[in-house]
Amino acid sequence: GQSLEQPSEVTAVEGAIVQINCTYQTSGFYGLSWYQQHDGGAPTFLSYNALDGLEETGRFSSFLSRSDSYGYLLLQELQMKDSASYFCALSSVSSASKIIFGSGTRLSIRP
Amino acid sequence: DAGVIQSPRHEVTEMGQEVTLRCKPISGHDYLFWYRQTMMRGLELLIYFNNNVPIDDSGMPEDRFSAKMPNASFSTLKIQPSEPRDSAVYFCASTPRPRSGNTIYFGEGSWLTVV
């Protein structure tokens, strides 16, 4: 099967940079996605990596290394509104479009 | 576009009662997913459909759960009989093409409490 592992909690300071890691186990996948979820809300798409390397979208960047089965989400210039849970997700080749999510990382930001 | 629409937003029901959750995906999206979210188990994929056909229901916890998609614009998730451990947020999501990284669009969720 496939699985994704994330730290359960991360704390950072407003204005700083934080990295949220994701390690995965799968026999093959199309790419790694990241989603943000605020308390009481629905997950919303942030970023996607089909290939190894860094993808940048404004203050958010995401990185993938297939050889290391590892990816991360990088958030820069942290704002209080970035306090949320962040999930990595993948679509497995062997499971025909089945999309599974990691356990999520709760990011808390201090002033 | 109105996005993925779910109903009801909140439901409180007694153990043993039947619960039906409804979902209208975004028009033109061929894939529909039902997820359940709890603190303990995170976001679990229950079942997903492609062009109204169930593709993988291996995440459905037990026979008490069933899902249907009678047409491209409507899906239901039914729990009968409901139990307190079914209390969770149930999300419906849709996407046109998940394999190439297309965004999955989630509804606002149905918050279910079984007492």
Describe the structure in brief.
The complex is a heterodimer of chains A (111) and B (115). By secondary structure, chain A is mostly beta strands.
Describe the structure.
The complex is a heterodimer of chains A (111) and B (115). With 111 residues, chain A is mainly beta. Chain A is 0% helix and 59% strand. Chain A has strands at residues 3-5, 9-13, 18-25, 29-37, 44-49, 53-57, 60-65, 70-75, 84-92, 99-101, 105-110. In chain A, the strands form two sheets. In chain A, strands 2, 4, 5, 9, 10 and 11 form a six-stranded mixed sheet that branches. Chain A has a five-stranded antiparallel sheet with strand order 1-3-8-7-6, with no helix packed on it. In chain A, strand 4 (29-37) and strand 5 form a beta hairpin. The mean pLDDT of chain A is 92. Chain B is built from no helices and eleven strands. In chain B, strand 5 (42-50) and strand 6 form a beta hairpin. Chain B is globular, with a radius of gyration of 13 Å.
List the uncertain runs of chain A.
none
Total DSSP helices of chain B: 0
Secondary structure: helix percent of chain A: under 10%
**Total beta strands of chain B:** 11
Output the radius of gyration of chain B: 13 Å
> What is the succession of H and E elements of chain A?
EEEEEEEEEEE
The SSE order of chain B reads EEEEEEEEEEE
Would you tell me the structural class of the helices and strands of chain B?
mainly beta
Q: Please name the two chains that share the biggest interface, counting residues whose Cβ lies under 8 Å from a Cβ on the partner chain.
A: A-B, 24 and 22 residues
Structural class of chain A: mainly beta
Residue share in β-strands of chain B: over 45%
* Secondary structure: number of strands of chain A: 11
